[in-house]
Amino acid sequence: MSALALRQRERIAARNLDLIRLNLDTLDAFFARYPAAFDWQRPKAGSVAFPAYRLGDVDAFCHDLAERQGVLLAPGRNFDFGGGRFRIGFGRRNVPDAVARLDAYMQTKGRV
Hints:
Elements: H1 2-7, H2 9-33, E1 38-39, E2 48-49, E3 52-53, H3 58-69, E4 74-75, E5 86-89, H4 95-108
Antiparallel strand pairs: 1-3, 2-5, 4-5
């Protein structure tokens, strides 16, 4: 199995990079709708970012989002990031659905 993956590594890497680029575009559009709520810096590499939540306690935000929408974002303090930051991964296929749920959460909270 691993030999097959190694033979296909360029195709697999290209597919993953395409997915990450599409997910970054989705995140760019989302964060552009909520400039007062988030500080978004598109990462230069990788599939993880640490945006800042500007509207209150980031721990409470992450907890409430998981409870209400089933979207798991981890507070940045778990990764030695302060400043109200949270970890968001975007290397998975379900990112558009998770961002749609995050958007619905922000809409219900009146945070447009």
